[in-house]
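Annotated sample (chain length 200).
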Amino acid sequence: MKVIPPAIYNLIKEFNKLPGIGHKTSERFVFYLLKQPAREIENLAQRLRELKNSVKTCHSCFTYTEKAECEICQDISRDHQIICVVAEPRDVISLEKTAQFNGIYHVLGGLINHPEGIGPEQIRLAELLKRVEKNNIKEIIIATNPTMEGEATALHIAKLLAEKPLIKITKIARGLPIGGDIEFADEVTLGNALQARQKM
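Output written by the structure step:
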């Protein structure tokens, strides 16, 4: 068997680390890139460097931004008394595409998953409680995925906030299939889920 040049082999291994990318897809990526002009490869490398050097987390909601505070948190036209709690920054993007929500967000950075060693202390629940205590929050919308981990996290948040009767706690309606991800839901389904949110 002929040996694959190390540069090709090593890049295939790097692409294999990406979620959902198998060996064959990694090979296609590498052989496609080999056919591109050097400037295209340099542009890609530059975009990757910018991604790592420029993008940070918003100090308020913890979504991705290039500033200290994201545009949503800075927007005074939004209702800062309603917080939509999501697991990951990509969920913010998905919900924003619905154009059905005018509040602000809180990104947990994961979900409670005890078999994987992720407890309440490993996600941003303490930061959520601080925001609730510091600001005059009137509603918390829990928009976690309809999975075991998402439901466990939603119930834990509801219990944490149960002692604060002035705060309405809701979760998005389950127009989403059990086991589905917010990231992959269409905008109409997500918009309907936000509009038909239920009290917890």
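Annotation: The radius of gyration is 20 Å.
Annotation: The first strand starts at residue 56 and ends at 57.
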